[in-house]
Design a protein that fits this description.
This protein is α+β, with helices and mostly antiparallel strands. The chain is built from six helices and six strands. Strand 4 and strand 5 form a beta hairpin. The protein is globular.
């Protein structure tokens, strides 16, 4: 399982870096399929990419969380609905710049450390809707919730459209935690 998480994060990082730089990977680096040819990352999670950054000199950006989570709760089974609270807590932490609350939603500190690049005082977030909610077909008691929004980088004034998939899973203690953001 830890190996699958590491491979997933590596693939996400490579996709993100490629999308941001608009360059292809160097030819001498092995691909994920060369590192582990029998691993099918698509069976673990659905990979999505953030949209291309768009710049604007006069940005009218208001951070906030305007997702009506109550309206989507019926898309989940009764026992899966606590996943929405975990999602709301994480999104609120990003909007309010609450670092401790942001880190508290992850399954462990190691994963919270790996997800630090989403958090930053120079980012302002606006989360507007949920695109989809799906049960994982390969992992028991896990839901995938795709959130749409925007992120303002105050260091350069750029606004980036976001499409993040949260994998939220119930652990052995029956608590719900974030296992990845992609």
């Amino acid at each position: 399982m830890p190996k699958a998480i590491v491979i997933t994060f590596l693939s996400i990082f490579l996709i993100f870096m490629t999308a941001c730089s608009k360059d292809s990977l160097p030819k001498d680096e092995p691909s994920i399929s060369e590192i582990e040819p029998n691993h099918d990352a698509a069976s673990d999670i659905t990979i999505t990419q953030d949209a291309v950054t768009k710049s604007s000199s006069n940005i009218d950006f208001e951070a906030g969380l305007t997702i009506d989570l109550e309206s989507v709760k019926d898309l989940l089974k009764e026992n899966e609905r606590p996943a929405l609270s975990v999602l709301e807590k994480n999104l609120t932490a990003l909007v309010q710049h609450d670092h401790k609350m942001y880190r508290s939603g992850f399954v462990n500190d190691r994963l919270a450390d790996a997800m630090e690049f989403y958090y930053g005082k120079h980012f302002q977030y606006k989360f507007s809707s949920i695109q989809s909610i799906e049960e994982s077909t390969s992992i028991r008691n896990q839901v995938h919730i795709t959130v749409l929004g925007e992120r303002l980088d105050t260091t350069n004034g750029s606004v980036e459209e976001l499409k993040w998939m949260y994998a939220i899973r119930q652990n052995a203690q029956r608590d719900w935690d974030i296992y990845t953001i992609d």
